[in-house]
Amino acid sequence: MYDRIVTSKFKPEELDEATKIMRESIIPAQKEQKGWKGTRVLIDREKSKITALISWNTKEDAQKVAQEGFMKKQMAKISPYLTGEPTIELCEVVID
Hints:
This protein has helices spanning 15-31, 59-67, 70-76; strands at residues 2-9, 36-44, 49-56, 87-92. It is of the alpha+beta class.
């Protein structure tokens, strides 16, 4: 299993709107992707930061959604609320 870790900084007043978009639009779209296992969203209100952990069955599944532009399309939904570029990592899960 692999997790894509996306950390983004938001305008403080937009944190709730961003999480609403994730809940109502982005995560339902992820569920339709081959190999998706689940998504957890963590929020640090003091730093106006949201971290999403998106789990995939295989590294290939995780890479495919990035290569096909799916991730870019989903990130565009929240980009007006960001204060900078998100950091994105792909890591193998060794203990679950």
